Amino acid sequence: MSTDIVKIDWHAKVSEFVDSGLSVGQYCKREKLNLKTFHYHRYSEQMKQKYPVKKMRGNAGPKQQIDWDSLTAKFVDSGLSYNAFCREEDLNYKRFKTARYKLKDKYPLKNPNIKGRQKTSYAHIDWDAEVARYIDSDLSIIAFCKRNQVQYKKFKEERYKLKDKYPLKDRKKTLDNTEIDWHQKVGEMVESGLSIGHYCKEQGFHLKKFGYHRYSDAMKKKYPLKKSKSQSKAVAKSAKAKTKAKQEKFIDVDVDWDHHMTRFERTGISEAEYCTMHGLNQRNFQYQLDLKQHFADNKQSKFIEAELVETPEQTDLTSMQPIEKPLKLYISSDNYIEIPSDISKTRLQDLLNVLRSV
Q: Can you give the pTM of this predicted structure?
């Protein structure tokens, strides 16, 4: 796709780019311009003289006026990670981290003894209270950690440390909960027409518990499962394909294939065009062509061409004794033609012409 660059006022675009303080990539992305084309015009000699290119050394450039002190103070108060803060403020990660470490005397690091990635401290978390909240919530460990923004591995480790105080749940007992009338609940779900996820969300049921009872053999017999749309579509599609295949077997039964194949060889068009033009099934037509080619290959014989030599008029044929046994002309190792000894010259000539044409 070629970009029409004739109608663009590149002087105005370059002037706007210089005033914006953006990088070439950011400006082209905002204005939906081709990067290579804009780069070519921006760094031409004429544009360089009119709009000098700034040399990037150290913190020189469009971002040298950034107040790193205020940004670092904001970063410390936010409690975000370096990546999250830079993404939110649209800052370069390396430049911000360099500036932040330069200001470490004014804004001390969380743990100066740890180098590299800073480890999160969990000393302020009351794990006893968190585990009690988790048990009362009836959520899974993953769902509870996501909701309360707690690290999964650390929470699981502390939860198993407190298993004497807060016993672990027996999965079979929880799934076979007899306090709830599951037949009634499954009947309500079937009548409501909602999916299992939506119904559990409305009624406040655990999805795995409800699914365990819904898909039991007793419930399947009482409330048969409905086929999904994708399954019904797949069944209909396969049935349609089978019907079409059966129909195609009986199409073009009364067609004169020899006539059509002869016409097709004369036309010189493709098989698809010929079949569309004459209303033929392309698969059947291709099958007939292959069949004809197969028989033509089998009929090819390897024999030496015989030349007829005219006998001189002076030769007396009546004096020659007739051959009692007929002549055998072998087409292949198993196939041969018997020629009677008294065959005439014209008939023999016609026979050889027919064999050459085949």
A: 0.23
